[in-house]
Amino acid sequence: MLRTSLIPTSHHRPHLLSFPLLHLRRKNTLKMARSALDEMTNSGAFDRTPSTFRNFISKDPASRFPAESGRYHLYISYACPWASRCLSYLKIKGLEKVISFTSVKPIWERTNENDEHMGWVFPASNDEEPGAEPDPLHSARSVRELYEIASTNYSGKYTVPVLWDKKLQTIVSNESAEIIRMFNTEFNDLAKNASLDLYPTSLQGKIDEVNEWVYSDLNNGVYKCGFARKQEPYEEATEKLYQALDKCEGILSKQRYMCGNSVTEADIRLFVTLIRFDEVYAVHFKCNKKLLREYPNVFNYTKDIFQIPGISSSVNMEHIKKHYYGSHPSINPFGIIPVGPNIDFSSPHDRQRFGS
Ligand SMILES: N[C@@H](CCC(=O)N[C@@H](CS)C(=O)NCC(=O)O)C(=O)O
């Protein structure tokens, strides 16, 4: 069986060569993190480990991973914001008939009887957990098993998303930021919505700039708040989080989307965090200084993105709530799921005031 190299093979994208060992040294551990709950520095701050499989699908038929209909499968969890951004792309680009997908169950379980690892697992049948399905390709019990099929010596985290190549029986990529770029451009000969470009050349500089602070202070920022084990890193992360939300509110009071008056990658990346904010992060990750609903522009904007055709089907709030409240016993030992607030993101918004 062909194995995918664990060293990034992104020779045409050299800036992506961020070898994980540097991070490991900083964390004073020679073992890679097995789960997000292990990703702590000595100061009690949360520090996310980089992804490992970094191959690219290309529209060039001669490439190792050419864009072909029916060849690739996307494994996701509806709960996970990184996986959800890939699913959002699959839907809005009209790739449902080209790339199949499967969601795991929302609550982490033991992945192997021989050790304590907790992670993503598949249901045994279609009825076990609405939205989740058994693995259609290998009947794997866990996402961990997929990584073990792809590589015999993998020792990192068993994360979703996983973009799987059915032909070479391996993982193409487990980095959502790169999977969405592939979905945006490389399948355009097969996509129903090929003309939608969420990373147009003219806006790339702007999108990259927004992505940078949105990633560190919001997407990852909520995790830094929630997983902090000391007061100081929690407060530092909270301060940056609310500065970033205030900045979004300012931008969105002047224009419909984050990079102007057309929707871009920056909006999809921001949306996956905003949609989880009041339902989960405000309570579970202690992001309660202000709620999303208290930011009129950001709140209406979240509804606006939710109502883009295809997006609402990438949001499964039941999985989202079950996962966070049920999978982090160090934060929520009894796994109680708060009953509220059940926001209706399909209700009217005021964003048409900027034009459509
Ligand atoms: N860099 C990855 C991050 C993915 C990630 O952290 N996924 C989380 C779920 S939200 C996961 O699968 N965690 C499993 C674990 O921590 O063991 C990406 O953006 O694709």
Automatic annotation (TrEMBL):
Record-linked PANTHER family: GLUTATHIONE S-TRANSFERASE OMEGA-LIKE 1-RELATED (PTHR32419:SF6), GLUTATHIONYL-HYDROQUINONE REDUCTASE (PTHR32419)
Site (Lowers pKa of active site Cys): 281, 324
Family annotation (InterPro entries): Glutathione-S-Trfase_C-like, Glutathione-S-Trfase_C_sf, Glutathione_S-Trfase, Glutathione_S-Trfase_N, GST_Omega-like_C, GST_Omega/GSH, Thioredoxin-like_sf
Gene3D superfamilies: 1.20.1050.10, Glutaredoxin (3.40.30.10)
Residues holding glutathione: 120, 157-160, 175-176
Species of the source: Stephania yunnanensis
Domain GST C-terminal: 200-324
Annotated catalytic residues: 80 (nucleophile), 223 (proton donor/acceptor)
GO cellular component, one term: cytoplasm
CDD domains found in the cross-reference section: GST_C_Omega_like
Descriptive protein name: GST C-terminal domain-containing protein
